[in-house]
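Cast an eye over this sequence plus tokens and explain the fold to me:
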Amino acid sequence: MKDFSFKYYLYDRAIEILSLIVMAVLVLGLCQIFGLKSEAVIMVAILIFVAILGVICFGYFRQRYFYRNLRVNLAKLDQSYLIAEVLDRPDFLDGKILYDVCYELGKSMLENVSKNEQVCQDFSDYIELWIHEIKSPLAALNLLAEKGRLRSGRELTRELARIDNLTEQILYFMRAESSAKDYLFQGCNLSEVVKAVLLTYRTQIQLQNMEIETRNLDRNVMSDVKWLKFMISQVLANALKYQAKKITFSAEQAQRMTILKIRDDGIGIPAEDLPRVFDKTFTGKNGHGKNGEHSTGMGLYIVKTLADKMGHKVEINSKIGDDSFTEVRFVFGEHEYYKNVR
């Protein structure tokens, strides 16, 4: 920042100063026209000169104090966006505007810094949790290998599926937390997407003897195919984890929207947990699934975050006890909306 010198101040205020001088000359001219004595005209000229000089000097020293204080504090601060916190708001217009701008920029920067720090902390916490969780199936595989129980492949398949699901979760968690729009909208046939997910999980489905039912899935929606497959797979993985014997995939058209429903007959979710199932790391009372699997509480959070990014809605309803069930609904807007978004 350049030094706030008197020379630069005069240059910046040149038009205002010239205007004052012109006005002073006009006033002196009028004094002559109205026949004031020479001594009076001289006295008026001196008073006008002193007044102009006083205005110039007052404005200069007032602004000089603020801008020099600004420069000194900027040099001292490690985080220059906090400059408004160490300055007093000036009493001249240009300074007020500059101060207000610095204040708003600093406030915005603090919010972004706080948000990024929270994202980094959340990611660090999740990595720590993920590492802990992935050790469980790896330890199980090691134990099975030592006991020579891998010949059937049943336990191996289950533990490898857990590893694959955890790996997919961390990949899509990073995408969900990223501000980049790395999704690609295209036409997706729900029947084909669901079949692809079921094919991926076919071994786990067979091991658990889960019954699959599909109804009216031959409908097209606009979405990112990979993201949609992941979201559906997380719902299916939860159904497998929480002892469902049957899962139903169905679709319907309602009010210019397409709704995909995924309903399973697992153990259900307690009513008090339902409002929080999409919260990050929330596990609730069902934190442990079948075979002692511990939930990370991240699957549905990632699903909700991805859905929000793409403009989809995701809803959940559940019941425990007799006739327990869990139903997850994905709501897609009509095609024209997403074409406009693209």
